[in-house]
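Late entry, written up from scratch paper. The run itself happened at the end of the previous shift, but nothing got recorded in the book at the time, so transcribing now.
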Amino acid sequence: MEVTDKNSLQNMRQTARLGGGEDRIARQHKKGKQTARERINALLDPGTFSEIDTFIQHRATQLGMESKRPWGDGVVTGTGKINGRTVYLFAQDFTVLGGSVGEAHGRKIAKIMDLAYQNGAPLIGINDSGGARIQEGVDALAAYGDIFHRNVQSSGTIPQLSIILGPCAGGAVYSPAITDFVFMAEETAHMFITGPRVVKAVTQEEVDFESLGGAGVHGETSGVAHFTAPDEESVLEQVRWLLSYLPSNNLTHPPVVDSEDDPDRSTPELARLVPGDPKQPYDVRTIIEHIVDGGEFLEVQAGYARNLSVGFARMDGRTVGVIANQPEHFAGVLDIDASTKGGRFIRFCDAFHIPLLTLIDTPGFLPGIDQEHGGIIRHGAKLLYAYSEATVPKVSLILRKAYGGAYIVMSSKHLGGDMNFAWPQSEIAVMGPEGAVNTIFRKELAEADSPNAKKAELVQNYREEFATPFVAASRGYLDDVITHAETRERLNKALALLRNKREETSKRKHGNIPL
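Output as recorded:
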């Protein structure tokens, strides 16, 4: 009897592992997609997955559901390790009822979310679902609500990562949207509130799945996706890389790694990498790579709002969040999208004890009717709010120019910057030299015998006497003006100095960020 029971249990487990069966698995593979269990095995350290709720079944009895009771109810949940650290995860199984979310399906996800929260470990969700299970009606909607609520309760306490490897539509998109980072596979992953058919019926617009909600759209236009990759294998590798920078929860610090890169390494090459002409573009990521450990920089939202580059790196083996104006795109100007992108990244870093390293080269906020009508005042204030609110160590370096409100917003001393540096040739002013001269000396230029020569003289005087960083340093707004060669050394020492920073915050429920 004991052997029979054991064999019966093994058969049940095998049935559960097959999900929707061999035919549906073959269809999944034909689409270039792995099954839920294959994805879990590819993501986790080998042999570490421990499944929970293998034998959950739904209890719906209407619309033919009484004859369809698959083990697991279309989602695989459990725990495992990534880079030796515990994570909790769920993976929707499209081969079982299209991965649709019903009462039992949602209850499984809610349980694993509770366990992640209670045990202080990252939560990873692999999404591949046809959406709410129509046959279960309001119970399916309730399941989504339970998931959303837990996403919000866990926000800022454990890292939450969403991996989109198939359809994610309707109400389902809001769980990933609440999480910290969204990953999407190109061509196979899609996210949208309403699909192409509904869009056509309501607006008469013709659009396909990829153009409406593919990885390209969300990685470059909407900003919903933080990472995109050409295939599932690459997406899962990105997830492992990101987690290597993050702490398990808000009560611990990110892991420290042994760095073979000397923290005091000289960086004289930076002098030739930044053009002297303030109008000439360059790729700020090159500067980042020469400053951080081993040149390794994991950029977040690399295709979206490219005038601001944000991401993770290490300095002396410790994680830092890097925020840098990108002169290669729109001269590094701050606009609506860049402000929102930067503000959200800063708030994540602040929640998880990740110091901020800010590299500044910006002419200011982007002018224009579209920006004003789109709410640049409100969106720009998000970036200002995030920097001012952050209590983690804040170290900044002005590379070339910092004009107007953008100087204030970009981690200035006035918003609580801890250590603020600038290179000698950098410029800090209300506006650029040419604009300032045109405004202040309009009459003199109009009356000059040679306006162009006069303007060149005035611009040069303005740069040397007014926009120089030594004016800001003389007021204490900069802690030092440093050379290119000593940049890495000084930034590392500043971060080390601030390692035990403590800052009391006012007693309140929360502030009211200008959303």
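The CA atoms of residues 470 and 481 lie 7 Å apart.
(Scratch paper discarded after transcription.)
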